[in-house]
Amino acid sequence: MHWPKGIKAKGEIRDQYSHISDIAPTIMETAGITVPEEYHGVKQQPMDGVSIAYSFDNPEAPNKKQRQYYEMFGNRAIWVDGWKAVSLHADRMPWDVNVTLPFDQDKWELYHVAEDFSESTDLAEKYPEKLEELKKIFDEEAWKYNVYPLHDDMIQRLAKQQDRLFGDQKEFVYFSPGAIRIAEKASAPVKNRSHTIETTIDLKGDEEGVIAVVGGMTGGFTMFIKEGHLFYDYNYLDGVHYILKSEPLPKGKTDLKFNFIKTKPFAGIGELYVNGKKVDEAEMPKMHISTYSLAETFDIGRDTGTQVSKFYNDPYIFNGELDRVVIRLTD
Ligand SMILES: [Ca+2]
Hints:
mainly beta; Jelly Rolls; six-stranded antiparallel β-sheet; binds calcium ion
């Protein structure tokens, strides 16, 4: 932490237990802001963490935090007042993805981290009642923070995020300028679904740039105009690109559309249309099953971060009059 005007201590270490959830409450307290219970008529969720500002000038202050749960892809832990119970789900290694394993055989370990910081001595057999107490608290926290149902398949878990956000929504309208840096999981859920991407542009003849894109150099798709042609480029892990290209585009008000027809799981046919006429088609036999990228975003009118296609350099801002892009799920 760096706050020369607010923290007298320089280069010191604090050992009060804290977690990432404590950062926002700490910033709020030091900025003198009380988190409102309601904002613009919307009831706010309470802050989960505990401000650690109390430790700035008081290195010996007792922990204010009472408990902290952890859960990631089925691995679980709970810290309570200097004790920690942990469970490495099914002894699974992080690279074992795309699998589901039973939870009921998971073994829990117990550590007194207040004295054994590096979790070197498992006390589960020595203090079985303490372990049961912590497991029960994990359960309480897990219900409170929507951890259940446990789900350990990382690939599917990431893939399902969009379903949870959008339910049955079929139409997504994005306006330009403005619709950029939208997290992939918060953008239209087109993966493994038949869909169209469509816009109408009054073409003058010198337009260039990205219309709609998601992802980057490791994967994604992009629809763009270059040298008078409409392109769609699907980047499959940067090893395979499915590229569609139109004839030279006309001038005037022009409807530009990409159509994906799913033929089997994570595969299909891509079609490109100009003013309702099919101008190109490509088989797309291998497609992403979960996530294009962990860091890239969905953008309209430019490709932020790294570029999806080798045909341009990012951000390749669209230089014409782009009003809106409509994505429709057609399954
Ligand atoms: Ca990008």
